[in-house]
Design the sequence.
RNA sequence: GCCGAGGUGGCGGAAUGGCAGACGCAGUAGACUCAAAAUCUACCGAUCGCAAGGUCAUGAGGGUUCAAGUCCCUCCCUCGGCACCA
């Protein structure tokens, strides 16, 4: 061994080529080893190229994949492109260049950049959602939903920019205004394809119990689904004239019904009464119109509560009491029955309303100790008071009892809405349906899939809100597959979420995607089913917190459906899901092209190398927290790697290992292994830095110890460690060598430092053999000169002793 | 407004209730050098003190404890999510 420079450029290029040639990261479909499926959210290949945030999250999963390989797993760590979407389309609108060409250019750049970072992807399994071979399957799967009645057409409001005359995706609406021109966005009704995800609401909730997702991820999904169990109850009306029957209210808090002091109905409900012939003063009519108009315009923001007394009275069925009916703006027509019982003592909104209009507040539920109404509503469950025969019951007992007495109808409601699956856009999967005047909506026969995107001149959505595909007459006009008559293709395309809803399955059968065999036969074949059984579920899926509600829910739904169809062996696609923090631009704002603050990694990689870049991004801060980008620190990780290289290749490394260094090495092996599992990469790097600093001070380390160290550094800095491993004539690749075990016994130190406190303040430290008992330490502590001086005039009242750590003398 | 995460040196950040500031960046001094870079060594929260040492410090204020950045209560601020879901 002789001194040499850390020539990362040469080293990184050399090993990237050798790994590719040897195929050491390819997942094996026929291995006897246990499988491990590690997944990242596949990137959208934007024109900006890879940015520093991609590197952080991808390096993390790369580290986990590499560690698993070393632990003896057959690892699948795939990569692909989620390439349909607006930025590419907008670029095409501006330049007229075909989105397919832009996509190819962008993916070429991304692929090159990812390869330069040494990620251990199985590149043979690369997929692209815009590849007709891929979206043929997406279209086929959509038709399965259609055949099961889970895809349907409905009139839905879309965001419409009146100036640009186009429909906007939600992402293009910022604060109720068009992202490009700033014009306030209007809601327009349009026929849209919908997927009935609500049919899977309970299954999606139930499935969460069996997966290992971060608690906050589960909570967000639960909240998004928003299951609530309630009851519908009729309140008889008095004063609506001939209409005077009943108003139906919905509540989840039947136990508070004795506290109802009014009934609040939505403007929509009141309007229906008017249409049915209710005669009411102009004042009320005006108010109703005003609320409806406000709702249309505001849409997004909550307005101040208001209401008007309708003149109508309602009868509370539980006690026959008469309460006033108010028409309000805070009860929504589309939610529940569009009417609620107002219980100000036990509901924040009713309380606010009652305060404003001086309506009575009657508390009927409280903690067991007694019923105290403070200046805020009591919204928890409790015990009933002033509630007739139900007084004294707990909320949990009272709800079924009251519902039985009233014969109330129980109803389960969800916040979750069905998935709007249509986009009036070009750059997405065409929806493979044909409309025939005679036969209705007819699916495209499987032999005609994929329906590929036709070339168009202009990619801009049309003035009438239709997709540009509607202008391609020769594409739109087809024969009805059923009757042979003249029919028209659906011109809407699928949303971005479609292709990403099943891509983790796509990776498992990339060869089959290319095949011309019918999908319905292929997917049920033993060959494909065996692959799916081998790899599913994904063992660890990491991605952004921003995808935790939509993408994660959609893909779970999609997979559960395929499972119910008998096409996929597992009902939950992801066993474990974690999330990373965003990398923000300097100043803590999001990086975006429009702000011009996107940081590209290329220059830094050229200057410090891929390994230094990887280690730095892991070292920056806690992985699960957002962090502002600052490249100054990369010099520190470069110095660390350079130091590793220099010390490991120095002329003479000692042949024996000092006891303390040996112990530190064991500790570091343990800590790095544990920190990787808990995504604490920053402290793992720090631990390795501490070790290297100690090695520097000790003048070096024997070869075998170096090899152990290389093994734990390997997932972080794969090129450098592979190079040194070769120089140390290690067997094969460092990345396929077993992960080192650590010796618990070697971790124990012979000497420990004991902190001596007086009244909790540190006074001195004792260096003593490990394992001394309280009496021995007390004796030593009290004899210490510093302590003797401090205790001169005090009496010891108490001694607190923590073995091998601390003694506190209380005086 | 509600839910969640967070607030620690000049900066990024460490810390199973038990030595606050690990590790790194920036900075200061020294060694090496003709010199510089690189590297190595030491120092590096504030404050009082010649020093030994003391005092104050983890957003603010209370509390529990022998001991609190960590647990409890009240409040302030930042970020993310949701927006009247009955």
Sequence:
């Amino acid at each position: 061994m002789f001194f040499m420079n850390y020539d990362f450029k040469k080293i990184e290029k050399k090993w990237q080529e050798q790994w590719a040639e040897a195929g050491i990261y390819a997942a094996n479909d026929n291995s006897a080893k246990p499988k491990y499926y590690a997944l990242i959210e596949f990137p959208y290949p934007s024109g900006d190229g890879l940015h520093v945030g991609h590197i952080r999250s991808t390096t993390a999963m790369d580290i986990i994949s590499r560690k698993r390989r070393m632990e003896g797993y057959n690892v699948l760590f795939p990569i692909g492109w989620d390439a349909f979407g607006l930025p590419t389309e907008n670029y095409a609108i501006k330049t007229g260049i075909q989105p397919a060409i832009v996509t190819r250019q962008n993916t070429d750049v991304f692929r090159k950049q990812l390869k330069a970072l040494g990620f251990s992807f199985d590149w043979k399994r690369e997929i692209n959602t815009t590849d007709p071979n891929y979206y043929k399957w997406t279209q086929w799967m959509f038709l399965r939903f259609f055949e099961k009645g889970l895809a349907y057409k409905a009139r839905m409001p879309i965001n419409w920019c009146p100036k640009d005359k186009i429909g906007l995706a939600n992402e293009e609406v910022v604060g109720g205004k068009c992202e490009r021109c700033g014009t306030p966005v209007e809601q327009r009704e349009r026929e849209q394809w919908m997927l009935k995800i609500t049919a899977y609401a309970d299954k999606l909730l139930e499935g969460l119990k069996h997966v290992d997702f971060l608690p906050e991820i589960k909570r967000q999904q639960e909240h998004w689904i928003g299951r609530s169990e309630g009851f519908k109850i009729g309140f008889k009306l008095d004063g609506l004239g001939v209409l005077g029957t009943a108003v139906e209210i919905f509540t989840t808090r039947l136990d508070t019904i004795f506290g109802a002091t009014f009934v609040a109905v939505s403007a929509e409900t009141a309007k229906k009464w008017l249409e049915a012939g209710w005669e009411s003063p102009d004042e009320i009519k005006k108010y109703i119109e005003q609320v409806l108009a406000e709702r249309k315009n505001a849409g997004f923001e909550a307005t101040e509560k208001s209401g008007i007394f309708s003149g109508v009275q309602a009868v509370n069925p539980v006690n026959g009491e008469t309460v006033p009916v108010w028409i309000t703006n805070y009860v929504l027509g589309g939610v529940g029955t569009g009417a609620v019982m107002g219980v100000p003592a036990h509901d924040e909104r009713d309380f606010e309303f009652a305060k404003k209009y001086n309506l009575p507040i009657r508390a009927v539920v409280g903690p067991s100790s007694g019923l105290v109404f403070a200046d805020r509503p009591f919204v928890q469950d409790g015990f009933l008071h002033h509630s007739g025969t139900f007084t004294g019951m707990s909320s949990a007992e009272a709800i079924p009892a009251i519902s039985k007495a009233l014969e109330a109808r129980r109803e389960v409601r969800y916040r979750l809405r069905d998935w709007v699956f249509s986009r009036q856009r070009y750059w997405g999967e065409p929806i493979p349906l044909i409309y025939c005047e005679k036969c209705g909506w007819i699916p495209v026969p499987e032999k005609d899939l994929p329906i590929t995107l036709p070339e168009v001149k202009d990619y801009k959505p049309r003035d009438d809100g239709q997709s540009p595909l509607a202008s391609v007459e020769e594409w739109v006009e087809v024969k009805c597959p059923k009757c042979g008559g003249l029919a028209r293709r659906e011109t809407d395309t699928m949303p971005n979420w479609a292709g990403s809803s099943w891509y983790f399955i796509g990776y498992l059968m990339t060869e089959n995607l290319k095949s011309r065999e019918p999908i319905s036969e292929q997917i049920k074949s033993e060959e494909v089913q065996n692959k799916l059984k081998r790899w599913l579920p994904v063992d660890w899926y990491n991605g952004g917190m921003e995808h935790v509600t939509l993408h994660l829910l959609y893909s779970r739904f999609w997979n559960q459906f395929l499972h119910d169809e008998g096409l996929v062996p597992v009902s939950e696609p992801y066993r474990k899901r974690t999330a990373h923090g965003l990398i923000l631009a300097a100043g803590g704002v999001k990086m975006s092209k429009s702000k011009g603050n996107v940081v590209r990694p290329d220059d830094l990689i050229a200057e410090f190398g891929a390994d230094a870049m990887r280690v730095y991004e892991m070292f920056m801060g806690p992985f699960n927290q957002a962090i502002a980008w600052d490249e100054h620190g990369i010099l520190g990780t470069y110095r660390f790697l350079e130091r590793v290289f220099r010390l490991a290749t120095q002329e003479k490394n000692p042949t024996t290992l000092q006891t303390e260094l040996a112990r530190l090495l064991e500790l570091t092996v343990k800590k790095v292994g544990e920190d990787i599992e808990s995504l604490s990469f920053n402290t793992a790097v720090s631990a390795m830095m501490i070790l290297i600093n100690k090695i520097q001070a000790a003048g070096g380390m024997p070869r075998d110890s170096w090899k152990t160290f290389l093994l734990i550094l390997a997932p972080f800095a794969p090129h450098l460690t592979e190079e040194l491993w070769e120089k140390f004539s290690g067997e094969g690749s460092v990345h396929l060598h077993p992960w080192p075990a650590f010796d618990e016994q070697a971790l124990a130190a012979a000497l420990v430092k004991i902190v001596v406190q007086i009244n909790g303040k540190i006074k001195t430290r004792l260096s003593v053999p490990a394992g001394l008992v309280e009496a021995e330490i007390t004796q030593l502590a009290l004899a210490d000169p510093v302590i003797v001086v401090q205790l001169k005039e005090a009496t010891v009242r108490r001694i607190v002793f923590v073995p091998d750590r601390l003694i506190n003398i209380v005086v």
Remarks:
- Chain A is about 35% helix and 20% strand.
- The mean pLDDT of chain A is 88.
- The first strand of chain A starts at residue 35 and ends at 40.
